[in-house]
């Protein structure tokens, strides 16, 4: 009876449906709790600190646990342990801390542990600009650890999306058994604006796929499944988990046949589902001669620039990737097929433009507006670049 009472009290402590005025980082923390997160492992770093601070207070109220570890490496590795114990878990960090987490992200990819990482990007490289905006972790999010693996990374551009995409991050992590990153930036993380929290029955919550075989027949990495069912510690399933290349039982192997089967499956479970996972938004791209590609806080400036360009008679549209990885190239294809040029605007020296070129080089003209970290390009700055490119 006492356990039931504690569960009821935990549910009562969750953020209630309604309209709030909230910071992006706090919205992400509250969303994590609603998604079922009950463990946070982290280490303080600007500009993500509000997430850890909020979770340290809120997790005990909902029956969860908060631990500040000695560093970011220990933090991210603890998430995989929590996942195998059956607990939804997350961490939050920024530039230097995200760099330290890369080995743990690769580990989670290899053992297929569903974990969530919020990276509130700041100016870099190195210590860089701890309190100012940047978007320089696009490539690191995908390629930061070594070897071949796949992750998913979301790009929120508002407080509402910090909330919505954090919940989606947990659902995707547990549906596909992969590390998922909420790749936001300092401005979006620390801005305060309207947040609408829907009724709980409107919030989809995804859990693991439960093993159907009895324990004596269970294979933890059974290749007959693209995404194997997951057994938790303490459920009677005895199996081996290692970061070495492993067979279906989880035991290390140097066989090329085993390596081929394992790594191919790790890649395919995301690539084969890229259109189910990938998301984007577009504005006025149907007749555009020039399509702006922008994400995060930069997309908000770009949208205002596009609207002004339209008022001045220029046929310009906006394509906003909501997933960095997998990149939703198919959303751009129709505009490209019509011959529209592309202009990528981002707060770095040209990262996502490389991804766009990978898909559309030699098909249309692809232009880049790079912007050093520390501030957001104003709509006027982007409009001037639009006019320069448009005249060509």
Short key terms for the protein model shown above:
392 residues; 15 helices; Rossmann fold; globular; alpha/beta; 2 domains; 19% strand
Describe this protein's structure:
The protein is of the alpha/beta class and 392 residues long. It folds into two domains: 201 residues, Thiamin diphosphate (ThDP)-binding fold, Pyr/PP domains (Rossmann fold), CATH 3.40.50; 112 residues, Rossmann fold (3-Layer(aba) Sandwich). Helix content is 40%, strand content 19%. The protein is built from 15 helices and 15 strands. The strands form three sheets. Strands 2, 3, 4, 5, 6, 7, 8 and 13 form an eight-stranded mixed sheet that branches.
Q: How is the topology of this model organized?
A:
Layout: H1 2-12, E1 18-23, H2 24-35, E2 39-42, H3 49-58, E3 65-68, H4 72-84, E4 89-93, H5 95-100, H6 102-111, E5 116-123, E6 129-133, H7 138-143, E7 152-154, H8 159-176, E8 180-185, H9 186-190, E9 192-197, H10 256-271, H11 274-277, E10 280-283, E11 290-293, H12 296-311, E12 316-321, E13 323-325, H13 330-337, E14 341-346, H14 352-360, E15 366-370, H15 379-391
Helix pairs in contact: 2-3, 2-8, 4-6, 12-15
Mean pLDDT: 96
Query: Which structural class fits the helix and strand makeup?
Result: alpha/beta
Q: What is the fourth-level CATH superfamily of the largest domain?
A: Thiamin diphosphate (ThDP)-binding fold, Pyr/PP domains
User: Mind telling me the C-alpha Rg?
Assistant: 22 Å
What is the CATH T-level topology of the largest domain?
Rossmann fold
Strand content: 15-25%
The count of helical stretches stands at 15
Report how far apart the termini are: 73 Å
Main sheet, how many strands, which sense, barrel? 8 strands, mixed
CATH structural architecture of the largest domain: 3-Layer(aba) Sandwich
The beta-strand count equals 15
CATH top level assignment of the largest domain: Alpha Beta
Give the H and E element order. Answer: HEHEHEHEHHEEHEHEHEHHEEHEEHEHEH
The low-confidence runs, each spanning 5 or more residues with pLDDT under 50, are: 1-5
Percent helix, as a range, is: 40-55%
How many domains, in number, for the residues?
A: 2
Shape: globular
């Amino acid at each position: 009876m006492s356990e039931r009472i504690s569960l009821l009290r935990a549910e009562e402590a969750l953020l209630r449906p309604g309209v709030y005025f909230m910071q992006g980082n706090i919205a992400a923390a509250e969303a994590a709790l609603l998604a079922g997160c009950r463990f946070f492992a982290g280490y303080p770093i600007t500009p993500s600190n509000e997430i850890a601070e909020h979770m340290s207070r809120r997790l005990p109220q909902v029956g969860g646990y908060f631990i500040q570890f000695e560093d970011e490496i220990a933090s991210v590795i603890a998430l995989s342990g929590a996942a195998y114990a059956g607990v939804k878990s997350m961490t939050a960090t920024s530039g230097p801390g995200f760099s330290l987490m890369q080995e743990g992200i690769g580990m989670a990819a290899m053992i297929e542990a569903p974990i969530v990482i919020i990276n509130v990007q700041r100016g870099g490289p190195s210590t860089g600009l701890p309190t100012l905006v940047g978007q320089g972790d696009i490539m690191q999010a995908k390629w930061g650890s070594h070897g071949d693996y796949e992750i998913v990374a979301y790009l929120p551009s508002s407080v509402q999306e910090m909330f919505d995409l954090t919940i989606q991050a947990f659902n995707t992590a547990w549906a596909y058994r992969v590390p998922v990153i909420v790749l936001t930036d300092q401005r979006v993380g620390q801005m305060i604006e309207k947040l609408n929290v829907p009724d709980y029955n409107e919030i989809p919550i995804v859990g693991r796929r439960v093993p159907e075989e009895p324990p004596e027949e269970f294979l933890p990495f059974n290749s007959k499944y693209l995404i194997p069912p997951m057994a938790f510690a303490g459920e009677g399933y005895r199996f081996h988990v290692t970061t070495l290349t492993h067979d279906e039982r989880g035991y290390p192997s140097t066989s090329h046949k085993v390596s081929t089967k394992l790594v191919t499956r790790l890649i395919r479970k995301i690539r084969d589902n890229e259109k189910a996972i990938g998301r984007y938004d577009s504005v006025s791209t149907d007749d555009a001669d020039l399509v702006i590609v922008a994400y995060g806080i930069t997309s908000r400036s770009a949208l205002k620039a596009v609207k002004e360009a339209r008022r001045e008679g220029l046929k310009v549209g906006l394509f906003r990737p909501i997933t960095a990885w997998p990149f939703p190239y198919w959303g751009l294809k129709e505009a490209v097929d019509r011959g529209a040029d592309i202009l990528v605007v981002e707060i770095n020296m040209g990262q996502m433009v490389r991804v766009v070129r990978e898909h559309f080089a030699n098909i249309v003209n692809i232009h880049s507006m790079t912007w050093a970290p520390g501030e957001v390009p104003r709509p006027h700055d982007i409009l001037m670049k639009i006019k320069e490119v448009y005249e060509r």
